[in-house]
What we know:
By secondary structure, chain A is an alpha+beta fold. Chain A has helices at 2-25, 59-68, 117-130, 166-169, 178-183, 192-195, 247-255, 267-273, 304-313, 316-322, 352-361, 380-393, 407-414, 435-439, 459-470, 474-491; strands spanning 32-34, 37-44, 73-76, 81-84, 87-92, 98-103, 142-151, 154-159, 205-210, 215-220, 238-243, 261-263, 279-294, 327-329, 369-376, 398-405, 423-428, 494-507, 510-511, 530-531.
Amino acid sequence: MTGSNISRRGLMQGATALVAATTAASPAISFEREGNRKVLVFSGGQPVPILDPHVRYDWSTRMMQQATHDALFKYVGNPPELVPWLAESHQISADGLTYTFRIVGNARFHNGDPLDAEAVRFSFERGLRINKGVAWMFKDFVKPENIRAVDARTVEFKLERAFAPFMSYLPWWYIVNPKQVMANQQDGDWGQKWLTDHEAGSGPFKVRRWDAQSIMHLEAVADYWKGWPMGADKRLAGVIYRVVREPAPRKAALQRREVDVITELTPDDFDQLKTIPGVRLEDHPGMTSFGIKFNCQRQPTADRNLRKAIAHAFDYEALLQIHNGAARLQTSPFPHAVRGHIDVPGVPRRDMDKAREFLRQSGTPNGGIELEYVHVQGLEDPRRIGLALLNSLQPLNIRVRITGQPWPTMVQRGSKPDTAPDMTSVYVTPLSTDPDTVAYQYHRASWGLYYGMSHYQNEEVWRLVDQARAETNWDRRAAMYAEVQRKIVDDQPEIFGMMANRRWAMRDYVKDFRFSPVRFTGEVDLYTMWIDA
Amino acid sequence: MLVYIAKRVALFGLMLFGLVCITFIISNIAPADPAALAAGPDASRSQIEQVRREYGLDRPLPEQFARYVAGLARGDLGRSVSTSRDVTSELLRYFPASLELVLVAMLLGIAIGVPLGMISALHKDGWIDHATRIFAVSGIALPPFWFGLLLQLVFAVQMGWLPTSGRLSLMTIPPEPITGMLLADSLLRGQWSTFAEAASFTVLPAVVLSLPCLASILRVNRAEMVEALRADYVMCARAHGVAPWRIVAVHALRNAMLPTLAIIGLRYGWMMSGTVLVETVFDWPGIGLYAVNSAIASDFKPVMGVTLLIGLNFMIANLVVDLLYGVLDPRLREA
């Protein structure tokens, strides 16, 4: 008996050891190395078809543009701060029309050419003339001929009219090397074809290998003019952006340590990764707002009281539940990270008494109507939010017809008041922290654009928005924007929804990830990151 | 024979033109605005119009179609709106990867399917036959997308034996392209370790892609073998005392191979289109992944290009099968 017991125990121990051995052996791969330095591998689902910083931007594209280029300023931290980068100092004339920047003296492009005022001027001219990507930010305010390289280190912009948000967009205007770009020009294309998969920047990384669909390998610039924040000895050898289209293999690659950082996770994957040792999760309140836009020009939603009724009947808790709690409700049309944001008193929360009261004052006091709710086909969250809306409006005797449509169709419909749906769910990511970026979405000029689908009309708001973007004094601007926020909430052109968290999962040896909400959903600043192991 | 081939090729031309018409119509019925998508969400109207002009999307549809067909005649498949690159050169770049995957999967399918079919036929209604039947039915029924994810979980994450996705390790520099197929190139260049690595990356996607092919080859081959083994000439051969292995491997198999060959040809085409799913799961940078990425951006030129390329592959495979029929069956040669 004893003998058999011992042998059974021995067997159990052996089995345990075997299991331990196989599990220990399974994460066979560790981070990539090159010499004695490490290579950080980042993975998301979106390719980078065009690297050219003046042609296109989205989260993955801009992450690579930021890594390979510099701009006059850079957004850093949370709340985002505008930090001088290529610009050493700047001056704004009293009338807000002339901006003068002094360029740092030691910045160099990757091929060794010095980065001077002419390169800055050229890059802005190129962006404006190509008229793609970032051009919309400035094209109504700056003419290419009014940008001047005063001397080797001074560049001057003369604006057509005062535009207070000017500086807040500068971080997205990356500087390229004019000599290299023009040497590769084909048929007067400003080097567009060449810059599709090449770069001519001065950033902390340069391109080593570029396959836009699968692997993009960047190599750290050893003597980067701005230096390395973690110290030259700890800096990475490079960064690889690996495209893994589907979330499940992406998560598997992180578990297997084939990659060090992943983004674009499903809420369930995120929760599962919480239990995996060696994985750290980053979960931060974002700046992308989700709202349900009413069509303010066509009945029945042209009726402010009906809109108010719906906004008070809506179940805001459902928004949080759908995101497993990883979201924050809006307290104003402006996301929290936008300058000048206020918590608007009386922003609607669920209150059925108020909802019924507003409905009684509306043109349809007993409900009995059907409203269309349109969301982007294939997106699960907005569809579920539609279901929550459907449930919320049942007590008011309002039916909701949920329609999923492809994004381009939805935008096409929203471009005119006659065709815009009664309610459309839209995500909007502001491009800067300046309040104008959000406020202008409620301006007449934004009618028909995807964020202007509500065709909101309030001349007083439009006047204030116009005034505020031309005002140079911040305190006066802030007061105007507070007024704008209150008035928009009062008019209820949309159900002010929530901002979902931005999420990444990374191995715990990845250091100095710095979140900044002004970057896009999956975008990170690769410059500060390194591997400690 | 030459006349026969010429006739077939002419027929291809017609079929390809039909395919061009259909894909063109479908992609233009789809309610999407590729110019707006390419210009980005914040683009102003003038920016969108500029993209539309640049890519000729502002022209009337008949004119766009005429231009597209004229381009095709020169081997120009147009330019992608989302990547601004020529579709032809992109396809040339991505096609070898898909072809490599399909060929490996095909080899797997034949190398396992044909013998298994033979064995099943020899043990008709025995346990081996039942086992392969279950295997074949599930092989056809398993959704490749799901099956791929499952294999990844088991062999990459749990066991850690094979890589999850991709074509090579991130730090491995691929061999100078000769064929564009990594397995072939690394062999031709004598880079053995690269070959082993590329092979390890090919295993999972090739298995997933080959399963339906393997299953149908197995079933068809089995049925034909059963049929052939019952035939008079087999009985005659037996009566003449021909060695049993020779009866099976030479006499019966040769006859059973004809329909099997047809299935192989068809399956080649199916596998080409199957790359869309498999490449997405395994991030295999081939035409399937290229098509998916383009379709998401409502970028129709690449999608049309991939469709045409797959159609062309179908046709070529069928032609090759027809010619091989002649080799295997002397009666057809004279006809």
